[in-house]
Every structure is written in C-alpha cells, then in structure tokens.
Amino acid sequence: MQACQLRWLLIGNSRWHWALGGADGLGGEPVPQFLHLPPQVAAVDPPVAWAAVGRVPPEAALPAETRLALEDVPLADAPPWLGIDRALAGWWAARVTGGPVLVADVGTVLSLTRVDGRGRFAGGRLMAGAALQLGAMGSGTEGLPSLERPLVGDVSGESWPRATEAAMRQGVAEGLAAAVLEAGRQARTLEAGCRIVLTGGDGPTLLPLLRRAGMGEAVLLHRPDLCLEALVALRPRPPAGAVQARPRSSRI
Hints:
single chain; five-stranded mixed beta sheet
C-alpha cells in the first residue's frame, strides 16, 4: 500500500512554495521535495499546514484551522508586525546553527533578519529584491529595458559587462551581495559567532559572489528552503483525525 504524500504550503509574494514528504513528514520517505511554482489554485488535498505572506485567493479554499499565524512560531521577542516568513526563517536558522544568526532571504524583497545568541528577534532590514530593482530601472528611465526574466542564472563571471542588460543584472546582483556582506560584518561585530544563512530564490546567484568575497562555509550557510523546513518542523503531521488522501495532481 502506497504511503500518503503530505504537503506543506508557503504562499509568497510571487510564488507558491510547496514541501512534499512521506507519511512521517519531512523525515519520512520518500526524500522530501521542494517546489517553487507560480501562484495556482489546483484540485489537491489540503496541506498539513500553510502560511502566507502574499495574497490568498478565496477560491483556494485553504482551511483556516491549519494556517500558521505569527504567534505559532516560537521566536522570542517577535513584534506583531513581523512577517511570518521572517519569523519562520529566523527561528529555524537559529535552531540549525545553534547560535546567533543573520538570515538573508533573497526573494521579491531582500529581508535581513537577525536573531541573537539567546534566540530572540533582534531586528532586521528590508530592501527591494532583484526583480523589483530591475523592474524599477525599466519603468523609471527612458533608456533602460524592462527585464522580465529572473536573476537566477543570468549573472556571469564578467564583473564589468559591456551589454546593458548584463550590466543591469550584474549591478543588481553585486549590490545585493554587498548589502548581505555589510550586514553580516555588522552582525558579527555585535556577536562574534554570528553566522549568515542564505535562502530565497536568488540565493544561488548571490552565493558565488559571497564566497568570492571571503564568506566560507564556517560563516555562510546556504539553505534554499529554510522557511519550508521550518514550516514542516512546526507541523510535522496532520491534525488529529485528519485523513490525507493520495494526491490528485502530479504537479504538487
């Protein structure tokens, strides 16, 4: 008999993020799979748990009883306005590293979230992510193009491109990497053992730039699915009495 495939969902600003696992949650079989898809409403069974920072379409009919709220995340000193994605990432990064941490979530927005050595929220910073910056350059000027493609995979090893589009992408990537580097330097000044955890869709593009700048594995940890890991860790199994049927969609 085939085990049920469980799902967890994080609705982001531009994509829906899914974790798929075996009947025992993230640690079960088969090996967990993470999917990052355009927003969609599909005929699938309800997720074990879900959270949202982006718009939740009413037609998705997601059950309110399995939605995680900020107060469900055990991150000390989290203010009531903190986004649940930042709370999840900060709490889990501190658990993973076992000490002070700065989470750099490089998505629609670059969010920098600091958790101190006692596991308390210690502030952060926000700035426009790659897609927003590229879009702003296109819409706010006469001479620059509007770039639709994501940043991932578009930054080459050429530090000073001649072509305009390449220069835009390289400039944005270098600027985001510089922001992470400086924030990490300041965080480590406050707490010497602070590690930086990189996550988010544009993380793979920034990772080599940060490594090139001297952030080795002892300082910088790449966890591309950090928020989903946290969601599954908080809700590893369905609520009591809930029945998870076999999936009706091969996509999710």
